[in-house]
User: Which sequence fits this backbone?
């Protein structure tokens, strides 16, 4: 078969292609990306776990290329052991479970404020009006960014995502470069301000993070701010969009969740498996390797497809069925191993609050269109827009 992740049909629905790859070519050379595609659950987990063979170093260069806003340092997501552990330990000090749990009242308040704007019979797009502003406002407030800059935050995040959609037309590069420069300048200014005037926010916590005479450098704090902006914004937007689209496309499941809100946490886990917000991530072989009997030379780029692994029939029975009873605790939507997503607890919390508020406040909401238009990226997956009707169907 010919598999190109940039092809429109693949972006629209990659899962039939993933199934063919898993069954007939689980280690597949993608000419368009000059990378090996790894699609079976067991192999994806193996690559993610064995960092000594499969380095995380190419993630940021492969995705952002020359528009990397902080090229001077290795980002946490692109750092291998032994450098990874102390950096992760420092960041963990600024991102504790207690800090995340304490956000729930504010997240509920933001969700209520957004839904207060919805008018019966009015124009309501779930992605534009709810799934996008909710995580953007949460991560912006966590970082300590002025509310007046929220629109800039979204603009910067969108531009970073634009870089994952394939080759950028030369005419767009100057605008993207300006966006990257503006984002970097803003964060540099805020980081400098927090050193002299600390506040109760995440940037201050990152600036103060210190352990055994080692602290985060200014550039490392800057890289973390950008990473949190992208990962804490875009991926959660896609999780919320995927949740709404999947639930509203499965009326029986929607009715069960409405009748029994206690199902929401396990429903979110099934959404994470069924429509993984992060579909793929890069690795680089540090030596000759072998996966599923296929030899992969040293210094080869490898792309592990979480979206495919989470639909692997060897791991999940009837994987293309959305099943509320499944509660798949072994899905790979947040990664695996040392790079397991730092923000997973926050994403789960935001999704739970959002679903609770949406089901309670908009009990008659339904899709205006049966199909979704998906974001222009093979790295992440979520609907671009999701117009809803608020009254009876």
Assistant:
């Amino acid at each position: 078969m010919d598999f190109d992740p940039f092809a429109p049909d693949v972006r629209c629905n990659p899962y039939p292609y993933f199934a063919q790859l898993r069954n007939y070519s689980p280690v597949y050379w993608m000419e368009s990306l000059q990378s090996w595609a790894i699609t079976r659950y067991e192999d994806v987990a193996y690559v993610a776990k064995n960092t000594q063979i499969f380095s995380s170093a190419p993630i940021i260069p492969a995705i952002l290329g020359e528009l990397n806003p902080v090229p001077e340092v290795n980002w946490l997501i692109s750092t291998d052991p032994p450098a990874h552990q102390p950096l992760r330990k420092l960041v963990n000090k600024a991102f504790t479970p207690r800090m995340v749990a304490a956000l729930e009242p504010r997240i509920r308040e933001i969700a209520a404020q957004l839904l207060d704007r919805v008018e019966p019979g009015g124009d309501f797009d779930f992605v534009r009006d709810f799934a996008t502003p909710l995580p953007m406002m949460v991560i912006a407030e966590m970082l300590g960014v002025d509310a007046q800059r929220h629109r800039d935050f979204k603009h910067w995040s969108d531009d970073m995502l634009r870089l994952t959609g394939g080759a950028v037309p030369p005419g767009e590069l100057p605008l993207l470069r300006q966006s990257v420069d503006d984002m970097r300048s803003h964060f540099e200014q805020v980081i400098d301000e927090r050193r002299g005037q600390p506040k109760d926010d995440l940037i201050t916590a990152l600036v103060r993070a210190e352990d055994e005479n080692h602290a985060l450098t200014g550039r490392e704090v800057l890289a973390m701010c950008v990473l949190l902006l992208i990962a804490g914004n875009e991926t959660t937007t896609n999780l919320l969009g995927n949740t709404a689209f999947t639930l509203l496309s499965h009326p029986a499941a929607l009715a069960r969740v409405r009748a029994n809100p206690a199902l929401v946490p396990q429903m979110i886990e099934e959404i994470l498996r069924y429509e993984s917000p992060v579909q793929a991530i890069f690795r680089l072989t540090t030596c000759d390797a072998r996966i599923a009997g296929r030899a992969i030379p040293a210094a080869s780029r490898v792309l592990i497809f979480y979206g495919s692994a989470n639909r692997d029939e060897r791991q999940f029975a009837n994987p293309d069925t959305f099943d509320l009873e499944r509660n798949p605790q072994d899905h790979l939507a947040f990664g695996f191993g040392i790079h397991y997503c730092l923000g997973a607890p926050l994403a789960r919390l935001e999704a739970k609050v959002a679903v609770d508020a949406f089901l309670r406040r908009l009990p008659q909401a339904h899709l205006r269109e049966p199909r979704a238009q998906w974001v222009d990226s093979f790295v992440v997956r979520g609907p671009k827009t999701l117009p809803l009707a608020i009254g009876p169907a």
